Each structure stands twice: as structure tokens, then as C-alpha cells.
């Protein structure tokens, strides 16, 4: 894996919020009496990637107030995880549905709504792309079979191993970031089915599976792979740059308001 290209953030760097997962302390071999204590868990590579692009990373607790949190950040990353509750998009859990977390779903949907209202950049990764689509009224393919197409849900490879290409739509934000195509890893058994309001699929795997989305009129995008594992992936530079521009615009607006 290529080492992350670290750019030291400063006090004026954009602040990027990262979602996590609520677990029990038993997963970290907590001592007796604390095994059932709730803990928040975050994948370190997201923070490393964000900070490597010159932004500041902050973890967002599951029981935080979504609107209040979004009011203080300049960008949002929705990370991977288990399935979105199918009832969120009008379906029932199927035979391959993982354990779902309705509270997590609601929190992340609230974050999406608040972020879009504030017009800050959003990067949805894997499940994060799926929750972005569902938040806007879209649906998901509930299960992609192993051994078919690109066998997207296989865990046979190391997490940073790139197994298939993604081809992007000309003129899309992600085409500007990656070019016409990039090679990605793959650890998802679900994918975008019907796009939500304003959502456009801008990247496909060779088997036709939707791999990248963008929300019209916003800086919200999603990817179905895990760019945080690669070290220095350009999507985080896009996020930091866009968040910085948004933050500067907000500061300029506030300055103008004060001087009136």
C-alpha cells in the first residue's frame, strides 16, 4: 500500500466529520463488568486519509445532534458498515440481510439532510453511498451473488487489493478526480438500484453494477469501494479542497454580514 501523503493541517484547515459505529466494549476484551459498555468505533484510515489531504478530522458520535454537528463542520464522510434497513426503502429484510442498526440509519440520514441543506461536501463510502441514495428516496439491490459478475462481496483479497475497473461518465466530478476510469477494491454485497431524487449514477463496474453516484446541484458524491485503504487517494484531496472553498465562502458571507 502506498503511504499516505501527509499534509499538515492548520488551524484554518477545513473540519471534516466522520461517522462511526456503536459497539460493545466486549470487542476490545474489556474487563468483567464493562463488557456491555457502549463504545464508539471508527476506522482510523478515514481520519488518516482526511488529514493526509490537509483537512482536520473529527469523529461524530451516534447520539449527537445531527444538525448541530453539521453546523460546525465543513465536510462529511459517511463510512462503510452493515446493511441499511431495507424498510427504509420500502422493502423487507431478505435472507442475506446483515444485522441492521435503525438508530445509525436515522442519524446518518439526518446528517445527509443537514449537510445538503448547508451545501457542504459529502463523501459516502460503500454503505455511505447506499445511505446517501436511500436518504434521497432511492432503493438498493439487496444482494449481489458471489461468483457472479465481479463477485463484489468476496473477502478473498486484502483490503487494498484492486480487483476491477470503474468507468466514469464524462463531465462528472469523479471523472475530473480520477479520469475516465480507475481500479478499485470490492467488499459490498449490495448496490444502488433505483437512484434517489437528484442522484445520478456516474460510475459502473464492468458487470454494470453502479459504483459511483453524484447528487445534482450539490457537492455530495458516493463511491462503492474503499478509497481510504489506498493511502493518498485523490478523492480525499477533492473533499478537502471543496470543504475549504465552502468554509471560505461561509467566512466571507459572515464577514459581509458583520460589516453591513
TrEMBL record:
InterPro entries in the cross-refs: Class_I_gatase-like, Peptidase_C26, PuuD-like
A molecular function GO annotation: hydrolase activity
This protein's record includes keyword Calcium: no
Upper lineage: Bacteria, Bacillati, Actinomycetota, Actinomycetes, Pseudonocardiales
Pfam families (UniProt xref): Peptidase_C26
Taxonomy, superkingdom: Bacteria
Record protein name field: Gamma-glutamyl-gamma-aminobutyrate hydrolase family protein
Keywords: Hydrolase
UniProt keyword annotation of Hydrolase present: yes
Amino acid at each position: 500500500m502506498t503511504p499516505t501523503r501527509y499534509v499538515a493541517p492548520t488551524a484554518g484547515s477545513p473540519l471534516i466529520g466522520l461517522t462511526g459505529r456503536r459497539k460493545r466494549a466486549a470487542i476490545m476484551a474489556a474487563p468483567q463488568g464493562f463488557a456491555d459498555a457502549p463504545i464508539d468505533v471508527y476506522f482510523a484510515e478515514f481520519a488518516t486519509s482526511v488529514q493526509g489531504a490537509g483537512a482536520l478530522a473529527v469523529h461524530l458520535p451516534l447520539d449527537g445532534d445531527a444538525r448541530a454537528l453539521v453546523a460546525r463542520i465543513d465536510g462529511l464522510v459517511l463510512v462503510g458498515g452493515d446493511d441499511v434497513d431495507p424498510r427504509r426503502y420500502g422493502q423487507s429484510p431478505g435472507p442475506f440481510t446483515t444485522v441492521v442498526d435503525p438508530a445509525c440509519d436515522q442519524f446518518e440520514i439526518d446528517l445527509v439532510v443537514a449537510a445538503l441543506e448547508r451545501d457542504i461536501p459529502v463523501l459516502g463510502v460503500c454503505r455511505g453511498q447506499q445511505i446517501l441514495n436511500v436518504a434521497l428516496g432511492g432503493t438498493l439491490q439487496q444482494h449481489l451473488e458471489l461468483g457472479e459478475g465481479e463477485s463484489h462481496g468476496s473477502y478473498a483479497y486484502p483490503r487494498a487489493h484492486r480487483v476491477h475497473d470503474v468507468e466514469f461518465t464524462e463531465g462528472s466530478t469523479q471523472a475530473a478526480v480520477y479520469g475516465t476510469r480507475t481500479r478499485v477494491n470490492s467488499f459490498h454485497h449490495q448496490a444502488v438500484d433505483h437512484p434517489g431524487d437528484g442522484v445520478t449514477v456516474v460510475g459502473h463496474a464492468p458487470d454494470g453494477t453502479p459504483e459511483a453516484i453524484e447528487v445534482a446541484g450539490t457537492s455530495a458524491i458516493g463511491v462503492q469501494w474503499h478509497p481510504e485503504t489506498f493511502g493518498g487517494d485523490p478523492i480525499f484531496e477533492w473533499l478537502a479542497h471543496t470543504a475549504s472553498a465552502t468554509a471560505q465562502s461561509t467566512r466571507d458571507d459572515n464577514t459581509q454580514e458583520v460589516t453591513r
